[in-house]
Amino acid sequence: MKLKLSYSITIYLIIVFIIACVFSNLESIREHTLGFIFYLTLIVIAFYFFLSRYSCKLDIDGSILHIKYLMPWNKDIHIDLKNFKYFDYGRGFYNLVSEREKGFMNLLRYPYDTIILSEGPDFSNNILILKVNLRLGQFNKLLNYLKAPVGLKLTDSNGSGGYFW
Fold first, then answer.
1. CA-CA distance, 26 to 31, in Å (whole number)?
2. Is 8 inside a domain boundary?
3. I need a surface site. Which of 47, 118, 131, 146 has the fewest CB within 10 A?
4. Which residue range is the domain that position 134 belongs to?
């Protein structure tokens, strides 16, 4: 079985935002070029940090998980899922009604989702923490794929160190 998931939609929104900003401020760009570039750069960095960090393409081919991050400072990941039997996850602020939320309040939560893989249900050995930012709805598709075709068991790491709470 194979699963392919694409980059977060917010990456495309950043590009549209930059183009719209440039075209809507053509007059002020001529007069205040450096200021415009400075503030546009700050806004794009903030937008990336709060909405698109850990944006990635994700492929599962058989039992091999490939995560290719958009930005080069996040190293690409290749994992054999046969080495793990259990997983847990935490949701960022995109899913406002999740029972597995990370952070304190809805708008103060982390801007990405997290998956923890482990050999045992107590999350005491061979733990791998993956941070991903996928399109809306694709994270649930990933969770269902990890449960059914791959055969990982969902368990709660809260009692075993509480990675999210």
1. 9
2. no
3. 47
4. 81-160
**Identity of residue 4:** K
Judge whether 21 lies within some domain. no
- DSSP reduced 3-state for 23: helix
On whether residue 45 sits in a domain, the answer given is no
For residues 17 and 29, give the distance between their C-alpha atoms in angstroms, rounded to a whole number: 16
Residue by residue, pLDDT tens for the chain (165 residues) are 688 888 777 778 888 888 888 888 888 788 888 888 898 899 888 888 877 888 889 999 988 999 998 888 889 999 999 999 999 888 876 665 666 655 555 555 577 888 889 888 877 778 888 989 888 788 888 988 999 888 899 887 665 555 554
Q: How far apart, in whole angstroms, are the C-alpha atoms of residue 88 and residue 119? A: 12
54, with CB counted inside 10 A (0-12, 13-18, 19+), is buried
- The reply to whether 57 falls in a domain is no
Sequence length of the chain is 165
Structure tokens at 128: 């791998």
Question: Taking Cα atoms as reference points, which of 33, 18, 112 lies closest to residue 70?
Answer: 112
Whole-angstrom distance between the N-terminal and C-terminal Cα of the chain?
A: 34
Domains in the chain: how many in total? 1
